[in-house]
Every structure is written in structure tokens, then in C-alpha cells.
Write a structure and sequence with these properties.
This protein is α/β, with parallel strands linked by helices and about 290 residues long. The two termini are about 30 Å apart. Strands 3-2-1-4-5-6-7 form a seven-stranded parallel sheet, sandwiched between helices. It has helices spanning about 25-35, 50-60, 75-90, 115-140, 160-180, 210, 230-240, 285-290, and strands spanning about 15-20, 40-45, 65-70, 95-100, 145-150, 185-195, 250-255.
């Protein structure tokens, strides 16, 4: 089996320890594979040990270095415990990819308070816990890089109001941390994925199939779904030395979606834009296979 076809040099993260939350599937799984292929020791964090173990086996089979810790990022004590275990074993944490998160599709008027709070805890509070623990226990002394995953929430996010609020908060948290932690040599940035063909699509209710399978040509200037590899590449850049003077920034990876204004009628077919697929173990979302 050929390895990950990254756009970056193979030893880019040699000797570094990088935590990837939500590493058992989707964008987190893909990113963990790329970072391991570039020499990092990857710490997979997620709720389901079984999923983490599969990714762990894949990475090791490919010759990479990784370990897995199960836990919910909303569980402050567990996350603190994991960070300390990593530090005890490896001395420092060079990077954090705050990828774990999730939401469900629902109109604002139907969202219960408990559901709203659960999405905020997953997408903001959990991310904050990881940022704080990694900074206080390692990065304040040694520096490092944090990449938070937000979303294409720039003009409101109908049917995802809870997640839009959470992702917007995470973006502001990113800017704030970039200001407060810059003196310690810690860079904090974000990546905002748009419509990405990731296994995360399969977590939605079957009744949402029609929405997920809709034709994107009228919505996105590049007129296609993005790949997990295209998100991972942006994350990898922000963790790398090439981004040494980049902090408090967000990289949109969305095919220009927010720029497809209503006054601009998109042509029926896009040209000259081929997806980048560096991942050698991609898993196509089942929901898109039904199209």
C-alpha cells in the first residue's frame, strides 16, 4: 500500500508530539494520518476507543507513530489526565488540533435548551478545555501551535443555529488566545471547512439525505464537495514552520462558498478544479454514494 501523498516534506514534524481530537474518523482521522506520515508522534483522542484503535492500527501499519486515549473532550478531568499522561511520556506537546465536535440539523424553534447546550459544550467548551490544559502544562513554557476547527458560518447557518453560535465563539476564542499567548511563542489559528465529503455526513438522520445529496453547483463557485485531504493540508500548513508568523487567522477551505453572492449566477459547470486527494485510505461518505 502506498503512503499518504502529502504536499509537505516527509520529516516536517520529526520529533514532535501532536494531539488530534476527534481522531477516530473523518477529518481527524485523515489529519492524524498525514501528520504521522510527516514524522509526528500523533496522540489520538476521541470518545470511542474502538474507532481510535482502528486508526492507530492503520497508522502503525503505514510505519507511523501514534497512541490513543479515549475520553469526551467535555470531561475536564479526563482531558487533564490525558494531557498529563502525554507529557509524562513525551516531555512536551508541540501541537494541538482541536477537531472534535458535531451537531445535528434542526430549525432554531425546535432546538431544546439541553441540545443547544450540548452542542456548545462539544464545540466550544471542550475545545477551550484542551487549549487551556495544553497551554498551561506545556506550551506556556515551550511554545507550540494550536489549530481549531470551525466552520463556514460567516453569514449565519440556518438549520444549524446551535453549531453556528458555537463555531463563531470558537473563532473569537482563537483570536483571543492568539493575542494572550503570543508572547509565549504559541500560535493559535483556525480552519473553516465548507462542504466536505467526510464520514461525518453519515452521522446525520436519514431524513436529511436529500439535503446532503443536493446539487452544489448553484451554491459553491468551485461547484463540488471538498476532500478531507484539503482540510488536512490547511491544518498541516498552520502547524508547520512555514506559518511561523501566522496567528489569529482563519483559513477558509470552502470552495468560495461565502463569495457566491445572490447577485452572481453561477454557470452550470465548473472547469479546471480537480480535488486534491492525498489520503491513501479515504472513506467516502455512504450518504453521497447514494446519489
Amino acid at each position: 500500500m502506498s503512503g499518504y501523498a502529502s504536499a509537505f516534506r516527509p520529516d516536517l514534524f520529526a520529533g514532535q508530539t501532536i494531539i488530534v481530537t476527534g481522531g477516530g474518523s473523518g477529518i481527524g482521522r485523515c489529519t492524524a494520518h498525514e501528520l504521522a506520515a510527516l514524522g509526528a508522534h500523533v496522540v489520538l483522542v476521541g470518545r470511542q476507543q474502538e474507532k481510535l484503535d482502528i486508526v492507530l492500527s492503520e497508522i502503525r501499519e503505514d510505519g507511523g507513530s501514534a497512541e490513543a486515549h479515549s475520553g469526551d473532550i467535555r470531561d475536564e478531568d479526563r482531558m487533564s489526565e490525558i494531557v498529563q499522561e502525554v507529557l509524562d511520556d513525551h516531555g512536551r506537546i508541540h501541537g494541538l488540533v482541536n477537531n472534535a465536535g458535531g451537531q445535528y440539523r434542526a430549525a432554531l424553534k425546535t432546538i431544546k435548551t439541553k441540545g443547544f447546550e450540548a452542542v456548545l459544550r462539544t464545540n466550544v467548551v471542550g475545545g477551550f478545555i484542551m487549549m487551556r490544559e495544553v497551554y498551561n502544562r506545556s506550551m506556556e513554557e515551550h511554545g507550540g501551535a494550536i489549530v481549531n476547527i470551525v466552520a463556514d458560518m460567516w453569514m449565519g447557518w440556518p438549520m444549524y443555529g446551535h453549531s453556528g453560535a458555537a463555531r463563531s465563539a470558537m473563532w473569537n476564542l482563537t483570536e483571543t488566545a492568539a493575542a494572550e499567548w503570543g508572547e509565549a511563542g504559541v500560535r493559535v489559528n483556525a480552519v473553516a471547512p465548507g462542504s466536505i465529503a467526510s464520514s461525518g455526513l453519515d452521522t446525520y438522520d436519514p431524513e436529511d439525505d436529500g439535503y446532503m445529496q443536493r446539487d452544489l453547483r448553484g451554491e459553491i463557485p468551485l461547484q463540488r464537495w471538498g476532500t478531507e485531504s484539503e482540510i488536512s493540508a490547511a491544518i498541516t500548513f498552520l502547524l508547520s514552520p512555514a506559518a511561523s508568523f501566522t496567528s489569529g487567522s482563519v483559513v477558509r477551505v470552502d470552495g468560495g462558498a461565502p463569495n457566491g453572492a445572490r447577485s452572481w449566477v453561477l454557470p452550470e459547470e465548473a472547469r479546471n478544479n480537480e480535488p486534491f486527494q492525498g489520503f491513501h485510505r479515504p472513506q467516502s461518505p455512504r450518504i453521497l454514494d447514494k446519489k
